[in-house]
Model the fold of this input.
Amino acid sequence: MTKQGSRPDDTQIGINSRQSFVLLALLFLAPLLIAWLMMSGGKGLIPKGTTNHGMLVQPVRLLELPAAIRTADDGVLPADYLRGKWTLIYMGDADCNDTCVQNLYKMRQVRFAQNENIKRVQRLFLLTDTGIPPALGTTLKNYSGMDVTLLSPVQVEAVAAQLQIDATDVRGAERVYLVDPRGYLMMYYPPDAAPKGMLKDLKKLLKYSQIG
Done:
């Protein structure tokens, strides 16, 4: 028995320290967990009939972009680019057909509509070519603020392998992907996805998650 006023033994201190660590971890992860459960349709957490509009990636996967990816402004994409913000990603070639342009438009509008949370969202166009032709350059002027990268053939293969979700070839899927602030790929939108649904999903995630 510990005498009154005496110091707790080392075992008691160790347990308390571990408990404190667990509590801190839960406090940090709880907002994101709640957001994820809501998007997944967790029973009792969302009103009946409320669902996500995007396609959930189950289980979520950590997305690791290749090193030294060149950017369109002759820079290099930071190694931690996918950390700290919600990221909308589109992967396409330099031809950028009508579907490509529509996806770039959706990404811009969805981010812009976040209002006070706009700085928590970033856009990334993973261009599967090593140069930007004049026609695409003209198109990109309408989407300023979006990060554009120039992938080498090896980098294209590395990224495509990580974005592969089903039998559809990623390089022709025309999808918009959503990555959370920890770098996890959690959702994607098909080419015909309505921007209104994308907007609702992201607003919900930003509301219930305080990270990023």
